[in-house]
Each structure stands twice: as C-alpha cells, then as structure tokens.
C-alpha cells in the first residue's frame, strides 16, 4: 500500500507470524490505522522502531510536545536484518560509565536496531564488576589514583582518583533493561592479558617470581601492560569463581574473555611459567596463551555457554567452539571462518569509533586513523575473500567498538559514537550494495533531513557535520594520530 497519508490512530495492531524471520516484520499504515506483524517479539519491536521513525523527530522525546497526533504516510514496509549480531562495544573499564549512562545507550541502540551490547568490564586501568567471592577486585581494582590525559610526552596527569563499578544488581538491571529492548549484553572479562587491575587487587595472580606484584597498582596511563596473569592452578580457580558469578548475572550465550594483547616477556622469564609449558607439553608461550583460552572454552561449554575472544585467540591454536571477534583487520576473521568458526567483524581500520573523524587540530584528543561518516557507511562486514563462498555464513555479525582512553564523559562518548553509529547501524541491518555502489549522498541527505533532529531530540552530543563545536574541543590535550591510510596489521 502506498499513497496518501493521515493522522496516527491509536496503538498499532500487533501479531506474530512465524513464517517471517524472527527479527523480521511487516509494517502497514493505512486509513484504518497501523498494524505490525513480526516473526517474533523482536520483529514486532523493530517494527515499532520503524513506526517511530515515521512519526518524526518529536517521537524521540521522552514526553509529547504537541497535542495533535503525527501524520503518517500510508505504506507497507517488509524488512529483516542482514546480521543476527549487530553490536556496540562500550569500554567502561578505562573510563567508568555510570549505570544510567549504560541504560541511556541501550535506548540509543534500540533506536538504531542494534541488538548486542558488548560491555568491556575489566582492563589494566580498572575492574568494573562486583565479584562477591573476591571483593578486593572492586575495593582495589575499581579505582586508580590518577589518569593520564591523552598521549603526551612528558605525560599530562589528571590527579583526581577515578573509578567506579557495577554491583551485580546494577548489572542485572542493565541486562533486564536490554532484554526488554531485545538487546543481549555480552560481558568481557579479560584473560590472560589486560589484567593489571586484578593483579593489583590480588598480587598472587601475577608472575611473582619475575616482578614484585605486591607493589603493582591499577594502571594510570594507556598502552599495553606487561603484567599478565600467571599460568597457575590458583589463577584458573580464581577466574572460574569470577565467571561463575558472571554467568549468574548475564544469561546470554556468549561470554567474551579478551585474549588479546598479552605480552609474553614475563612468561619467558618465569620459571613457574616455563614449568607449566613443559608440564602441559606446550611448544612455547603462544601455546601457553592458547592453554588459558582452551581451559575457559571447555569450562564455559560445560555450562552451556560459548566463548568469544579477540582474534589473538587464533595464535597457538584456536579453541574448539570459540567464536572470534576480528579486530586487527579482516585476516583473523577470514582464517577463523575458513576453519569453521563463527566471526564477528569489527576491524579497527573501519569501525573503531575512538578513532578521529577528521584530520585537523580541532578534533578533541585525536587518536588513530581518520574514519569519516562516509568511511563507516562504506564498511563491508563480509570481505571479498569470503563473499559468495560457503564460509560467508560464518560471519554472524558485526560490531562497532568505542574505547574510552580519551573519552572521560558521556559527552565525549557521544561525540565519538555519533553520527557514525547511524551509518554503522544501516550497514549492520540492511542488505546494501557493494561499498563502491552505495549511495552515501542519499544517506547524508536522510541524516540532514531527519536523523540529526532525532539525535537532538534524544539529547545526543554528536559531532556536527561542520566539525566540533567550541565546547567539544580539548585544547592542550595531546592525541596520537596514526599516519597514512589504515592498513591491516599483525596478521595471525
């Protein structure tokens, strides 16, 4: 049905039709009102989001501002997502985001039909999840005494302590709020690298025969820490305790265990680590890292869950049943898919939203490569090496990642995430033409005509198309821009 328009009449009529895909829907607007048919409850929900779009920007406000109902075009829309995993990573470890901020981002994700929130809960700079069996993880690990500002040399410091954590009930609330919006929350607990905050809380977790772990503190600057977990039975039992409580809070199938950026120097120097390598019949430190991952892959599988990790888990042998989040480019995802493993494509060269949006001195704390709105809209989750092959179906989805070393507030996160998340959401949901054939001018026109106004109604402090506003700049805080065009690095 097309042609004509009329005022919105009451609540939409809703029904379920199992013949439609679970997240698919049919939306019909006509003189007799609105009907939404979904393949499942999620499909109905996404149909409601499309209806919200049709109602205009005021529909995104928290309360009505006009008494008259909006006028809607008469039409029928049938739609379904391209990918089942349409994700956003929020790094709440480097800079803590209070619970209300996470709930707000779930609303923003729902408005963009994204359905996976990846919460990066632990890192060298902070531990953000309450673990009752090991309380010092938050008593000590959730707080750092100061924070590096940008990447200057010599460093610039914010001398205020920084921290925070979520109680388990906070996280249950987040999970329930997400579920009501058909969003799954995937927790990340980093193993065996990115673990200095945990070692600061419990020094026996570190390689104490190599370094004075009792003197370590939660890391205050950025970069990869050399302090990694010791490959001991105690470490395994400790993280089993941690994950037991995590599984009780997060009911989703996937648990992310990191597995990335684990320097091997301490293991090379550690007599205890070398003894473990010999005892397990491992060839080297890379296989020792794989030993960690395989252990928790088996442990999670026994409990009906599934491990996902960054593409370094390919090194030393990929754990059976594990899925891969391919961040260092497409190569890790291609290798994993060809080996029969599911893949979430999130290459830093394309969808790392902490990377700068323009080349200029006005960009706040400029980091990484320039990734414009156009660049994100041209991102293709299925690389040519897999397209048209039996392995393409192994790409179960895609994800945009927002790391927060330089994003210390809700406004800074908003600036980095939007409007690029809108482009990413369209890529993740829609069956778009190949990148070179995509009509970015049409996308930009739709942004200008409607979507920036929707973001305004939701109170999003996005980067304007003309560049940062004066209060969005961070003069005097040095960044770390990457030179040249983005290229794949560190192929496994």
Automatic annotation (TrEMBL):
One of its GO terms (biological process) is glycosaminoglycan metabolic process. The keyword Glycosyltransferase does not apply. It catalyses: Hydrolysis of terminal non-reducing N-acetyl-D-hexosamine residues in N-acetyl-beta-D-hexosaminides. The active site is at 261 (proton donor). Pfam families: Glyco_hydro_20, Glyco_hydro_20b. Keywords: Glycosidase, Hydrolase. Belongs to the glycosyl hydrolase 20 family. This is beta-N-acetylhexosaminidase. Its EC number is 3.2.1.52. GO terms for molecular function: beta-N-acetylhexosaminidase activity. Residues 83-431 form the Glycoside hydrolase family 20 catalytic domain. Residues 17-79 form the Beta-hexosaminidase bacterial type N-terminal domain. InterPro entries: Beta_hexosaminidase_sua/sub (IPR025705), GH (IPR017853), Glyco_hydro_20_cat (IPR015883), Hex-like_dom2 (IPR029018), HEX_bac_N (IPR015882). It comes from the Bacteria. It is an enzyme of class 3 (hydrolase). Residues 1-22, 463-492 are annotated as: Disordered. The lineage of its organism: Bacteria, Bacillati, Actinomycetota, Actinomycetes, Streptosporangiales. The keyword GTP-binding does not apply. GO terms for cellular component: membrane.
